[in-house]
Structure of Phosphoserine phosphatase:
Amino acid sequence: MLNDLIDKRKTILAESEQHKERRNELNALASQYARERNELNNQTRQFVEEAQQHKELRDKSNKDVSTLKDQRNELNEKANVLFEELEEYKKEHGNIKKGQVKDIQRQIEFLEFKQQTEAMSADKERDLVEKIKQMKQQVREQEAELEQNKEIRGKLQDARDLRKAASDLHIKVTESADLAQQHHDLMVECYRKADKSREEADARHRAFVEAQESADAEHKSFIECQKELRDYDKVISGVRTKTKKVKTVKENKSVRMEAEKIFNSFKSGEKLTTDDLLLLQRSKLI
């Protein structure tokens, strides 16, 4: 019986060590998942902050576009007024051309706006730029004709200056619009990265919870094994104590019988050895 108990205790002890080892492995794995989750969450926050910065820069560039457009349009309107006066002068002097400066200039403005706002192929954009160039050349030719008249030369120069300033502002409008689009694209990319890292962080968190729960289950099994070991230790200790007592009783009985035999021999007149005397003392017969 005692050997069976000892064998069963060894089995429970081995099982306990397995649960302990597996628990420690799962706790280490859970810690790793937690670290990775936290790193991904920090990364997500960084992406969101970066996206917010690009959003602010995009909004600022869009605001600049709006302001510059208003300024450009105001200069173009002033230039148009002067060109209208020049057209009236041409009408009065009977020198009217089919493509009037005002109309051509408005077409140029329309085409420039189309170039800025519409997506087109590189070939189509080159054709559009070439057409704008040709129309600007027409404007210069008509303006050159008007310059021959000293009375309107100053007004023509003012109109040119206004148009040049408007053209410069148009370049700034295009640059600000491009910059706004760049920041918008970067913002979208940052949000995309943030979504991806957030999904990965959520996956790590789920893995962390699963590993932690498994570790807790292994720890619970380990504790149960420890309890069983303590119970086996008590039982084994009790069996050993009982066995020892039984053995002692048997030994005492045997010693008593041997001592009584020696004592009877002593009474019959036989001599006793030192060992015989010690045995009689142990059995309390003398």
Observations:
- The mean pLDDT is 83.
- Residues 29-215 form one domain.
- Residues 52 and 187 are 7 Å apart (CA to CA).
